[in-house]
Amino acid sequence: RKEKKADAAVQGSVSDAATRKPLTGVTVSISGRGNDKKELATDAQGAFKVTALVPGEVTILLEKKGYQTLRKEGVAIREGSTLKLTMEMEEEQDDAEEVFHPLLRLLQGE
């Protein structure tokens, strides 16, 4: 009979790289070996916790509209322990350019 392995967990928080404010509703996908995949969204404090993961290496993917997708590969999670992560997401550059266009026109004297 095989012994039951203790599950691994990942918990963390996601914030805006520029403002340092927590990001709500970020889709957090954690995929491991085979079909082991968990997906959830961050709460109002930008926090998330994924439990019952198979120990080993996982890929963590953060996605939110208006932000650059953040991908961390080869993240090692150990049996019976919780990995704590603090991550920051940057706004997509296209949006930033649109915001600054009027200012650029002013600087160029148009």
List keywords for this structure.
110 residues, 3-stranded mixed sheet, 1 helix
Protein described:
- By secondary structure, this protein is mainly beta.
- Helices cover 15% and strands 45% of the residues.
- The chain is built from one helix and seven strands; from the N terminus they run E-E-E-E-E-E-E-H.
Beta-strand level of the residues, as a percent range? over 45%
- Give the H and E element order: EEEEEEEH
- The averaged pLDDT comes out at 85
Task: State the low-pLDDT regions, or none.
Answer: none
Structural classification: mainly beta
Strands across the major sheet, in which order? 3-2-5-6
Instruction: Give the total of beta strands.
Output: 7
Concise summary:
With 110 residues, the protein is mainly beta. It is built from one helix and seven strands.
Topology overview:
Layout: E1 8-16, E2 27-31, E3 37-41, E4 47-53, E5 56-63, E6 70-77, E7 82-89, H1 93-108
